[in-house]
Amino acid sequence: MWVMTGVIMLLIQVILGGITRLTGSGLSITEWNIVTGALPPLNHAQWLEAFDKYRQTPQFRLINADFTLSDYKFIFFWEWFHRLWARLVAVVFVVGLAWLLWKKKMRKDMIRPLVILFLLGALQGAVGWIMVASGLTGDAIYVRPTRLALHFVFALGLIVYAFWFALQLMVSERHIVRASATGKGAGLRGWTILILVVLFFQLLYGALMAGNKAAAIAPTWPTINGDWVPGALFSQHPFLQDIIGNTITVHFIHRGIAYLLLLLVVIWTFKACRLPGVPKYFLTFRWLPLLLIGLQVFLGISSLLASPGIIPNRWVAFDWLAQLHQITGLLFLLTIVEMLYIVRPVSHSVTV
Fold first, then answer.
1. Does residue 345 register a pLDDT over 80?
2. Which uninterrupted H or E stretch holds 1?
3. Confidence at residue 51, expressed as pLDDT on a 0 to 100 scale
4. How many CB atoms lie within 10 A of CB 61?
């Protein structure tokens, strides 16, 4: 339960990151103080000092010049809470580790995963600051989309690793679907791996969509501004810049991968329903990937259609839908990871 608590807290951390982005709060704190930054400004003078530092940023000068101290306190809160929650996650893992050591319940096979978790957490914090720093200089009014995507991908890697570790500690052997190397179960595992690979790119492009503000560029469905294949697709050079920075290209790829994922999950569900003699645990949850991907597609389309109603610095319908879209994507990711853990060939090792 200790590791799973950490996983849940990490999920909340990503959700808070989404709220921070949607409220435009990510650049409100211009310094990275690991210890002293845990406390917000405690008096009016400290608030004025923090606000003055924010007023030196390109974001304030170019789009938020009319901000009052009250406006600043609002965006400051979300970025500060996002950072505070990250510190609390670290505390939970440290306290849990200390308790295991004190009670002498630490198993040797738990040491390496825990060390890796701490290293990944520290790396994620560093990447987060690199991302924030990209929006504090020059004429940048937001963080760079590529660094936002990198920060998001590292967060997902940390969550998946912690979740896999939690599955090792919590999932009973009777829940495992065993199959021969050439049996139906092995085939299903291959499809699960394929879905996980495609899902990685979908989540990556979801982050690029967010970083490039690409939703509002084509708020139509099923076509993209009336075209099935937009004319501006793959129009920038070099090619790498086009597929990560051309909003129409990013939009097109994100939609296309969503349809592909839906098709793959339909096939996976069909194969899962044909597996004979599987544990009740698997029977209960084998429909979950299809339900989640269906909801995910619905929320994605709804977000697009609601994007013309975006109002800067105000939480509107689009923001609710975008946040639910992200949450559903995270739950779908963990569901596929769990299916990968449960369905495996005979004598397959799942250590981390």
1. no
2. none
3. 93
4. 12
- Name the pLDDT band for 179 (thresholds 50, 70, 90): low
Both tokens of 194, joined, read 């394929």
Cβ-Cβ contacts under 8 Å for 284 (sequence gap 6 or more): none
In one-letter notation, the amino acid at residue 73 is K
59/162 same-domain check: yes
From residue 329, how far is each of 98, 135, 137, 190, 239 by CA, in Å? 33, 26, 32, 21, 28
Closest-CA residue to 162 (of 335, 6, 340, 15): 6
Residue with the two structure tokens 């930054």: 37
Predicted structure pTM score = 0.88
d(CA 9, CA 5): 6
**Which tokens in the block code for residue 125?**
């914090």
Helix axes 145-170, 184-211, angle to 10 degrees: 150
The predicted pLDDT at position 159 comes to 93
Amino acid symbol at 2: W
Judged by DSSP in three states, 344 sits in strand
Domain boundary among 170, 198, 230: 170
Residues spanned by the domain of 19: 1-170
